[in-house]
Every structure is written in C-alpha cells, then in structure tokens.
Amino acid sequence: MRKVYIVGAGMTPFGKFPDRPYYNLGKQAALEAIKDAAIDHRQIQAGFVGNVMAGMVPGQKVFKELGMTGMQIVNVENACSSGATAVNLGYWAVASGQYDAVMAVGTENLTGNRSGGTALAPDPDDIEGVQGAVMPGIYAMRARRYMEEYGITPEDLALVAVKNHKHASLNPYAQFRNLVTVEEVLASRMIAEPFTLLQCCPVADGAAAVVLCSEEKMRELGAKGVQINASILVSGKYKTEPGDMTVPEISERASRLAYSMAGLGPEDINLVECHDAFTIAEILYYEVLGFCGRGEGVGLLRSGAVELGGKVVFSPRGGLMCMGHPLGATGVAQIVEAVWQLRGEAGARQVQGAKVAMTHVTGGGVSGMDNAACGVHILTV
Amino acid sequence: MSVKPATNQEYEFYHPDLFVMPENGAKPYLLGYLCQKCGKTWFPKAVPCPECWSEDIIQIPLSRVGKLYSYSTVHVGQKGIQTPYVIGYVDLPENVRVFAQLDMEPAELKIGMDVEVTAGVTRVDPNGVKTVSYKFKAVPAD
User: Fold this and answer.
1) At residue A85, does pLDDT exceed 70?
2) Of A7-11, A132-136, A285-289, which gets the smallest average pLDDT?
3) CB of B21 within 8 Å of any CB in chain A?
4) A131 — contact with chain B (CB < 8 Å)?
5) Which among A163, A208, A209 has a CA at the least distance from the CA of A304?
6) What rounded mean pLDDT belongs to chain A?
7) Sign of the CA dihedral A36, A40, A44, A47?
8) Domains of chain A: residue spans and CATH
9) pLDDT value at position B5?
10) DSSP element (H, E) containing A92
11) Separation CA A377–CA A4 (nearest Å)
12) At what angle do helices A279-288 and A154-168 cross, to 10 degrees?
C-alpha cells in the first residue's frame, strides 16, 4: 500500500448563504485546494464528493465548470460522515495505486434544504423517526443519562460551548465568532432538555476540499504534504437491546482502528476535530477516543488540557458548535483545519508545534445504531 | 390478533406487527419477536434473525412495564408533533430497548422509574388526522 499525502486544502467560510447553491460553494473550495496544491487541474484523475441534501450527481455539478470532466466522479452520501467518506475513498484510490492524484470535496447548502423551526430527525420511515425522535433529543438523552451517572451539571455542559466559541473567535472561517459565557449559554432558548440553543451545532452552508496524491507525485510537484496515516470508515452495529448510550461504541471502535492503522495512540495527538454536534458529544469523545477514562471528561475539560495552549486541543477551529454543520462538508472541513494546523498556517488559533492531528465525524440517525457512519482520520507532518 | 379498528379520525400506527390495542378493553401491549435458535428477542420485527439468520421466530407479547433508561423534553421537534413533548428510551425485561413518546409531565420523570405502555396520539398530520400509537406513562400507584 502506498503512502498518501494531502498537498492542497481549501474551504469557504461557513455561514448562511441561501443564494449560493452547493455546487457554487463546492467549486470555490475545489479551486482553492487546487491552487494551494499548485497542481495543474488536468492532473487530477478522480473526484469524490460528499453531500447529503442535493440529490443526484452533485459532484458533476461541482466539477463541470472547472473543466474537470471525463474523470471518475463518485458521489457519496453517508449523513454527517459524507465528507469523511469522500476522503476515505480518495485515500484508498491513491493508496491502492489506482490513481496518483485525486480530490475529495464536501459541499452542502443546508439553508435551502431545511424548514425552519424543526430539528434534524431520522427519516420518517425509521421506527424512531416516526415516533418523534430528533437528533437533539437523542443526544439530550445521552446527556441526561451521563448527568445521572456522573453527577455533572448543566454548567459543565455549557463549558464546551464556551471553549469552542473562544476558539472560533480566532477563526475567520467560523460562522459564530462571538465569545459566550456559561450564563449566556444556559439562558439561550431550550431545544431539547438539557440542551439550550447554544449547546447545539447550528445550520450552515459551506464547502471544503483537499487534493490527495502519492509520494512520487508529491515530489514531482515539489510539495511538502501532510501525510494521512489512518483513514477509517465504519458503520454502526444494529442492536435493539439495552446498551450504554454514554459510550458511543461506533466512535470507540473507529478510533481504535485508526490508532492501530497509524501506529499511534492518544498520547501522540496534538489536536482533535471531533463531532461536537452537541455539548455532551465532545465530553463523551474525550473519553471514547481515549484521552481520559469514563466519567473523567468534565475534569479534563476543566483542567484546560483540551483548549488552546493545552496538551490536546479539541475543536481548535470552533468545532461544529461554532462553524455550523453543513452535513456533507464537515468531514472535509475538519481535515482542511488539520492540514492548516500541521503546516503551521492556522493563524491566531494555531496549536503550537502541532505534529499529529485526529479528525472524527459520526452521524446519521438510524434506530438501533449509535450512528449510521463514523469516519476517523489521523494526519501527521 | 385483535386490533382496534381505525376510525376516520384516528389512524392505527403504520405497522400491526408492533402494537396491539385489544378490543375487549384489555391493556395494550407491544409485540416482540423471539428467535427460537439464538434466543434473542427483537423489536421491531426482524426476519431472519439479524444475529443468527434463523427464520424460526415466534411473536410474543412484550412486558407492559419497563424501566426508563433516559428521557428528554423536546422543544424544537418534528412537524406534526406539538411541542414541548417528552421522549424516552424504555428497557423491557425481554432485553429490548424501545424509543417512544412519554405521556408524562417533565416533573414526573426519573431515570430508572417504572413506566408502562399505553396508547395515545403521537402525531397529527396537516389535515388534522391523528396517528395513534404506543407511548409510555408512569405506572399508577396501587
């Protein structure tokens, strides 16, 4: 298997852009990634495009006006993990020797596809969806159970939002760059108890793209790439029996596979972009990704270890919480952030001396599964 | 299997394999699917057994009372369900976990409490047509 490098990264700012269709956003991100790679676009041999809401063949619409047609284009839908899935397919296309240079793009316009006043929910033909399940409600039940088991408070949960807003305030690509206090987080309107609005990731539009290539191609380009040491994609296990909702098995399993593939462990990681769709989620991921023990998540958060300047910085770009979560784009955007951090180009939010980064997305509401799909990547310089 | 006939205004939940509301006034109950080969019980119905692929599966009535594993009061929900509404996961003795709306006030909710299955309106479509399906409620004190 060949080594795979990211030699170009680009993204749009995240925000609400009702007038910019997903293909327009995706085109901009792709263009920026190609310029960043200083590669002739005609050398890109395949494109993998993550999107959830747009319908048929979004990738062709992203690439056609860039003149990148005729190549293999694969459109992937895997809920919140669609972007990570696109990168995973691109990784294997290069690692296997099929291609020398490919692109992965994640793009989404959510504002044009969501009705206001409702929450993201499983499909209406899902047994939990038809009975009234919504994603904030599912995560709220994880939170409620965790609060009961470990005695944490709403204030503890709110600290995740406070930290991620602090990080986002330093990120020009973030949708919400304001600082917030615990009191403001808890005083925002209720969404699904115990979550208030500022504890839930907002709707966003946006796109991100990366250029992946072989070592040989990287030398030919004279580029210094970021290596992808692990690219893991797994699905949730179907169970209708009781389980511990505070230990999302899918994320634990995906991260262990990633550590094994990379030959690295949590102690080696300098920064993590995780799927902080709700405040409790980031706390659970400190634990299941292996950065602390069960029930120790809040202690780790309060110690400062997971914020800028700490030992392992979680969500340096502000996470889903402040970027927003344009479903198909998020997985690629996390990887773009990791690339910028590892190249030392992250500006005011730079994690000093970052050498190893992890990205983690997971999502898709299907009854009986923690989540439908989870993607984990480990990148190094 | 006896199920209450749907009236003009109340639609039975979409799948009769899930839930029984006896006509004789007996209490409603959920249906489980017990694999005769590996012994696992499934809710909802799954044939073949997702665990062992046996097709030797029998329908059983599930216990009416379970333990509330967790809950939330939803303030921003789905279209067709008036907010706020309460949701929860209920663990039944047959080793199945069921998601449902709870016919309960937020103040009554406590993790680990006993709750029992009941029938109630779970959603109302834009024409005002109600869906009646399973919900859970607190077990009344004797």
Assistant:
1) yes
2) A132-136
3) no
4) yes
5) A163
6) 96
7) positive
8) 4-114+204-228 (3.40.47.10), 129-201+231-380 (3.40.47.10)
9) 42
10) helix A82-95
11) 12
12) 90
Q: Which position has the token pair 């809710």?
A: B43
Residues in chain B with CB shorter than 8 Å from the CB of A194 are: 72
Inter-chain residue contact B75 with A193, CB threshold 8 Å: yes
In the predicted structure, residue B14 carries a pLDDT above the cut 70 = no
CA distance B142 to chain A (A): 28
Q: What is the DSSP string of A209-266?
A: EEEEEEHHHHHHHT--PEEEEEEEEEEPPP--S---TTS-HHHHHHHHHHHHHHT--G
Closest by alpha carbon to A11, among A211, A212, A210? A210
Is B42 an 8 Å CB contact of chain A? yes
Catalytic residue check, A80: yes
pTM of the full structure: 0.94
Q: Cα(A343)–Cα(B111) distance, rounded to whole angstroms?
A: 47
**A128, A145, A193 member nearest B111 (Cβ):** A145
CA atoms within 13 A on the CB side of A4: 30
Q: What is the DSSP string of A53-77?
A: SS-S-HHHHHHGGGT--SSEEEEE-
Confidence of residue B15 (pLDDT cuts 50, 70, 90): low
The C-alpha atoms of residue A80 and residue A53 are separated, in whole angstroms, by 11
Q: Is the pLDDT of residue B4 over 70?
A: no
Is 0.90 exceeded by the ipTM? Answer: yes
Do A106 and A59 touch, CB atoms closer than 8 A?
no
Cα separation of A68 and A44, whole Å? Answer: 8
